[in-house]
Write a structure and sequence with these properties.
4-stranded mixed beta sheet, alpha/beta, globular, 13 helices, two-stranded parallel ribbon, Phenylalanine Hydroxylase
Length: 301
């Protein structure tokens, strides 16, 4: 049996490389492999961002931190998180070895599972990482999963993705126009997810707060998103969201606001209606590109 070196640093973890070589997408969290440096990175990330959460995060997120007992002391064990999550929303964190193609990811949400990265970024590069890591996935996403309405939004979104796959049934081997429509559907859903679950703002009684995990896990962008005059903030509008491209390597210049998580749920209903009516078959070009793995995941669903 081969052995793997200690440490679960993103892009440097032998355990992850081996799992990927073995074709294992869903894995266990080998907690004993976290190095002292990995644990120190978690503590540093948590200590730096906690004051920003207290100022800029939405109330349900802060409650989620409390009920999950998410602390600075050590990288969380997913089994512990799942024990706390189960009675609240039925969600669970599901460890993965790397990128999860779009349909598989969205269908996990439908089944109340959240694909969760177990590696953590290098302590020498705390501020920006193009790949997700456990701090983004657990500290950014999972506290929101303690809220029943928000978790139902994720399930509902997974149902929309499943409908998109069913609608595309028979497309494999079909003509180019059918493939193009499916690519547009995927692009529209990715944009919706980006501008809500990843980078959404919500109106609360004391002003705008962040609920998107991309904001909640970013020390710099969390404050920037709510205070900078360079950011345009508008009430969510479906025609804008599904036609607005985004880029991942800089702060977002345009963000959308929901009034509540019930409001967000209604927007997912609207997304499905637009899908059924063919309004997502022809969205504006631009990012994100639909990669072959994402397209294939829908065609094979």
């Amino acid at each position: 049996m081969s052995t793997v070196a200690s440490g679960l640093t993103t892009t440097k973890a032998a355990f992850i490389e081996q799992a990927q070589q073995d074709g294992q997408l869903y894995i266990d969290q080998p907690y004993d492999l976290y190095s002292d440096e990995n644990q120190e990175t978690w503590r540093c990330l948590y200590d730096r961002i906690l004051p920003k959460w207290e100022q800029f995060a939405n109330a349900r997120f802060m409650h989620g931190l409390e009920v999950l007992h998410l602390k600075r002391d050590a990288i969380p064990k997913l089994d512990d998180i799942n024990r706390f999550l189960a009675p609240l929303s039925g969600f669970k964190a599901k460890a993965v070895s790397g990128y999860v193609p779009a349909f598989l990811f969205f269908d996990c949400l439908r089944q109340r599972s959240f694909p969760t990265t177990i590696t953590i970024r290098d302590g020498q590069a705390l501020d920006y990482l193009p790949e997700p890591d456990i701090f983004h996935d657990v500290a950014g996403h999972v506290p929101m999963h303690t809220d029943r309405v928000f978790s139902d939004v994720l399930v509902r979104f997974g149902e929309v993705a499943r409908f998109a796959a069913e609608r595309a049934a028979g497309v494999a081997g079909g003509d180019a126009e059918h493939i193009r429509c499916l690519e547009n559907n995927i692009k529209a859903m990715a944009r919706f997810f980006w501008f809500t679950v990843e980078f959404g703002l919500i109106r609360e009684k004391d002003g705008l707060k962040a609920y998107g995990s991309g904001l909640l896990s970013s020390l710099g962008e969390l404050e920037h998103s709510l205070t900078s005059p360079a950011v345009q903030r508008y009430p969510i509008q479906m025609e804008w969201v599904v036609n607005q491209y985004f880029e991942i390597d800089h702060y977002q210049p345009l963000l959308f606001i929901v009034d509540s998580f019930d409001h967000l749920f209604s927007q997912v209903d609207k997304l499905e209606t637009w899908l059924k009516d063919g309004k997502l078959d022809h969205v504006s070009p631009g990012e994100p590109a639909v990669n072959p793995a994402d397209l294939e995941s829908f065609l094979e669903a």
